[in-house]
Amino acid sequence: MRVHVTGLxxxxxxxxxxxxxxxxxxxGRTGIGELTRFDASALPARLAGQVLDFAAEExxxxxxxxxxxxxxxxxxxxxxxxxxxxxxxxAALTDYDMxxxxxxxxxxxxFTHREFQKLWSRGPRYVSVYESFAWFYAVxxxxxxxxxxxxxxSSALVAEQAGGLDAIGHARRTARRGTPLVLTGGVDSAFxxxxxxxxxxxxxxxxxTDPGRAYLPFDTGARGYVPxxxxxxxxxxxxxxxxxxxxxxxxxxIAGYASTFDPPPGSPRPPGLRRAAELALxxxxxxxxxxxxxxxxxxxxxALDRAEADAITAVFGPRGVPVTAPKSLTGRxxxxxxxxxxxxxxxxVRDGVIPATAGTTDVPDDxxxxxxxGSPRGAAVTTALVLARGRWGFNSAVVVTAVPD
Amino acid sequence: MxxxxxxxxxxxxxxxxxEEESADPRADISDVPxxxxxxxxxxxxxxxxxxxxxxxxxxxxxVVAELRTPxxxxxxxxxxxxxxx
Lengths: 405, 85
Hints:
Largest interface: A-B, 13 and 14 residues
CATH superfamily of chain A: Thiolase/Chalcone synthase
Helix content of chain B: 55-70%
CATH topology of chain A: Peroxisomal Thiolase, Chain A, domain 1
Number of strands of chain A: 16
Oligomer: heterodimer
Structural class of chain B: mainly alpha
CATH topology of chain B: Non-ribosomal Peptide Synthetase Peptidyl Carrier Protein, Chain A
CATH superfamily of chain B: ACP-like
Structural class of chain A: alpha/beta
Number of helices of chain A: 12
Strand content of chain A: 15-25%
Radius of gyration of chain A: 20 Å
Number of strands of chain B: 0
Distance between the termini of chain B: 7 Å
Distance between the termini of chain A: 18 Å
CATH class of chain B: Mainly Alpha
Shape of chain B: globular
Strand content of chain B: under 5%
């Protein structure tokens, strides 16, 4: 059974809404800047991809404001925009025919930080009852499900930066098992002091101070990544169900998905990214020669960039496929990163253009990558491969393809 | 003796649990069921906890959870405030 994407919703550091985000990507406008959520002046890493123009009270029902973390507010807004893009009115559909599958790597970090501060400074009676679920990995799935009356099979997946692609893969599986419509995607935000230190303690966060040069995936000057916030939500529908309801537009098909897990550190076995890419292509019934562009995980850490370059060249041959990482304009969004890349891939299909990896100028020759950088590249795109890696061994890959009118 | 008014209670409810966009700020909500106002059991727990802290009274969760309208909650609060004099 084919599963089509009929709606997109984006909350990204460089654009709210699909078109604002896409314009920013093609124009190379960055969402990375000085972290302003708290005083980070004494910390070694101070750049972040922040969503600064999001007024929660404009996008989230007043009733939900006291009980939601900023990340959940992004998820609710993106879900609503994706439904609007698909012209789906959930109230007009059967509640058990709609599911929700989302991913978040952090949960409601900022909300929880605030409540924990109350706990230790004033006592348990001061902790909000809403902390009971506002922190929780499944909270975005739950809030979206309640808000739109979607009672079909729903779940939440967690796999650091790879989790967002896992959610999309599982949403496709959910549709194939009989649920006509599934909302899916991922968001993250952890820019309170505690959440920020959780990023920094990974040892992979860039200490660069120039927003245009701090996160340079696949560059000789790569020195780590910049954390970002936000993400994307997509409406997936069984192709037949979308046709039957008269869906006015199909953005593309989720044609393949796979995930793998790395062997333990020190093992002689290779990392699992290559296998994830190969399995996703096989799942789509395609070969490497069919792929027009790869949206890379793009860790921005030299050893990890090299490992990804090796995986890509093993599948596609040296300089065998255009590779890009527009996430250098947003930072790494953890669970939001994969779904945002899938949206970007679908827009590449729509407009026949591969966006550039911003900032990166000098790619080591021995990476043997055809990295799109400098400016976008016009190209007919009918098939795109999206890769994501999560810390502690997660690898996921999604294949999207064009759907002819 | 301190007493709480329905306006005071409404302010606390909105601060703890928000309110529906369709709510009329001038309407008297005293006898409108919490369900119709969009307040679930968690909203009442959050509100009860806030009032307990701010007014130094005790509002057991299991008692508050059984109340159906703002008037019933207000009566419970004011009985407690009278008792705590």
